[in-house]
Amino acid sequence: MFSVRCLVLLFSLALSAPAAPATNASAHAIAFTNGDALLGRLQSINPQGILVWRHPDAAAPITFAPGSATEVRFHDAVQPATLLSNRCLVKLTNLDELEGGLRSLDERELVLETVYAGTLHIPRSRVQTILPLSERLATVFSGPDGLEGWTIGKVNAAVGEAGQWRYLNGAFYAREAASVARDVKLPEATSIEFDLEWRGMLNVAVALYTDYLHPVSLRAKEDEPDFGGFYSLQINSQLVNLLYVNKREPLRQLGQAIVPALAQKNRARIAIKCSRNAPQVSLLVDGVIVRQWVDTEGFGAEGTGIRLVHQGQGTVRLSDLRVTEWDGRFEEAAPIRTDGNNDLLVLVNSDKVLADLKEIRAGGVILVASGNPLNVPLNRVTQIELAGGKQVRDGTAKHAVRAWFAQRGSLTFTLDKWDAEGAVATSPNFGRAVFNPKVFSRLEFNIGP
To answer: Under CATH, which number does the domain 77-133+331-396+405-436 receive?
Structure first.
């Protein structure tokens, strides 16, 4: 095997490389079962699972045996811009998630129109949850794609030496205490999401709605240059904590929450939802609401920027940062169990209806509740839980692959072929389909059951 101790996925080595953007020839990164990693570009995967890789310093393509790779990351993944009617997030019984326009649902199947694989036919028995999505909201920031436009600040480290965030291939890295900030012009209600990976202790603080782009020492904030009030969301391996910070006032604790899941993993999707009018801040970890804070004294933050501070314990990688407007809805609703016989609908007014859902067609939900037929517009529904369907994670099939979308969600399937023309995949969830490979940000191999 061509073996290089490279830097993208190995945190301890990633920070020693020059912070240069990825070229087209090195827009991908592959990790191997022996711990090696390599930059380059995935050219193809054949039906036997042989992976062909291009490297800018190699005269010819490099082939890797089936089972030798654990992961490929695509730093040039794209988010489809096409809008579809009746846009929904569909969660399957094997925990897969995919987004598309809901064309119909009947007693046999769900038909989903997608911009990345055409029309998919999914057996109803394999659908667990349907989450109707609001109209796509404006994106305020998407990246990172470099350090330009960001303010690098020096942290007074309590532990170890201070350093700085570095940029490489679509991600920020830090292994010492470091701060980076940007005025992204946060709207009145916003959603801030990013992927966070770490080695060692997790200890990161996110300043929300700040007007000051340098780190603030909370122990001696009175000695800092003048700054307006902001919220500091502190996330570590044991718990999360929200503070209101204002130079002219004592620190105000808004509350803590213990998050055992963070101590049991080293990767998570973090989502922070904020609303000035509510006034509230909510935190979701991997789609699950961890804590919602309401500031009873009113929303006191005075800026429109964000600041990301690594406290210097362990090594951190932050990527896929998206800041968008927020409509106040939590699309990542956790499953609500039905009574086993009836389907369950959650309406926009939070009412819950147990019913026999007959079909969804032309934006209308046709159901029978307490013997009475009803027709409910899909845009009046926030969540649908279908009866039946045992939740289980697939992955026992030979050559099973988990592909993560650049936007949200993932799919598990047998990969028949991958090349520039498309990713040919087979799954009991959708049969055989050809996907646009550019919509995926990550492939995981050897995933096991």
So the answer is: 2.30.30.100
Q: Which helix (H) or strand (E) holds 405?
A: strand 400-405
Instruction: Write the CB contacts of 334 (distance below 8 Å, at least 6 apart in sequence).
Output: 287, 288, 289
**What pTM, to 2 d.p., does this model score?**
0.68
- Would you kindly state where each structural domain of the chain is located, as residue ranges? 11-74, 77-133+331-396+405-436, 139-325
Regarding the domain delimited by 139-325, which CATH topology (the fold level of the hierarchy) does it fall under?
Answer: Jelly Rolls (2.60.120)
Question: Shortest CA distance to 330 belongs to which of 401, 369, 274?
Answer: 274
289: helix, coil or strand? strand
Structure confidence by residue, pLDDT tens digits, 102-159 = 999 999 999 999 999 999 999 999 999 998 887 667 889 988 888 999 999 888 755 5
CA–chain centroid gap for 247, Å, is 33
Residue 205: pLDDT above 50? yes
pLDDT tens by residue, 178-202: 999 999 999 999 999 999 999 988 9
Please count the CA atoms within 13 angstroms of the CA of 104 that sit on its side-chain side.
Answer: 8
What pLDDT sits at residue 240? 95
Strands 364-369 and 62-64: unpaired
Is 405 within 8 Å of 358 (Cβ atoms)? no
